[in-house]
Amino acid sequence: EIVLTQSPATLSLSPGERATLSCRANQSVSNNLAWYQQKPGQAPRLLIYDASNRATGVPARFSGSGSGTDFTLTISSLEPEDFAIYYCQQRNNRPRTFGQGTKVEVK
Amino acid sequence: QLQLQESGPGLVKPSETLSLTCTVSGAPIKSSTYYWGWIRQPPGKGLEWVGSIYYGGSTYYNPSLKSRVTISEDTSKNQFSLKLISVTAADTAVYYCARAGAEAGYYFDYWGQGILVTVSS
To answer: Is the confidence at residue B96, as pLDDT, over 80?
Structure first.
């Protein structure tokens, strides 16, 4: 099973700041990685797929990069609605696995 | 607009069977350009893939649940279902059904709102 480790667990930032979230896999997943955003009481929302492709309707301030074992989600300038939990997920192998999440909170 | 809606009992007794249905509207569940899955989330915790069902009916399950889980489809009702036997308190979670579409790299791009299932006597 591929284990995805996200860091940091919590990121405390102010609106307008840049957020950089990390996801590391214990073996290569090529570029088969996605990022999701989840707000309290809501289902996850797909943001980025195949490491760097924005899903439909996702603002350009969200970008993804990386391949192999190291991936990054960047939010260039945090908007109030971006404070949430972010999960990475790989689909390179079964079982599909998720990271444990990074919470982006208001500083 | 594609919509998914989970339904089923919110409370299941230990050792019994959890049965949930996902009703899909806005697209046929039988298509080669997407597949369907169940994902769960224990209260206050992260996401866990339960399993998926593909075009043609093939299924894949999380090995941590494999011996207890079954996913099936009913194309006449445009639904797919989850059955989890011999549940324990550890199976208490919000259960989501979701679609993985070709246009989103076969990641989960549409989700239901989720249904909380509590395992308790």
So the answer is: yes
Tell me the pairing of strands B11-12 and B115-119.
Answer: parallel
Closest CB to B104 among A42, A46, A100: A46
CB of A62 within 8 Å of a chain B CB? The answer is no
CB B85 within 8 A of CB B68: yes
**pLDDT tens string A48-104:** 999 999 999 999 999 999 999 999 999 999 999 999 999 999 999 999 999 999 999
**Residues 6 or more apart in contact with residue B41 via CB below 8 angstroms:** B47, B48, B93, B94, B96, B114
Neighbour tally for B118: CB within 10 Å: 13
**CB-CB: which of A45, A91, A98 is closest to B106?**
A91
Strands (E), chain A: 4-7, 10-13, 19-25, 33-38, 45-49, 53-54, 62-67, 70-75, 85-90, 97-98, 102-106
Q: Is A36 within 8 Å of A25 (Cβ atoms)?
A: no
A95 and B105 within 8 Å at the Cβ level: the answer is no
Residues A16, A78 contacting (CB under 8 angstroms)? yes
Q: CA-CA distance, A95 to A97, in Å (whole number)? A: 6
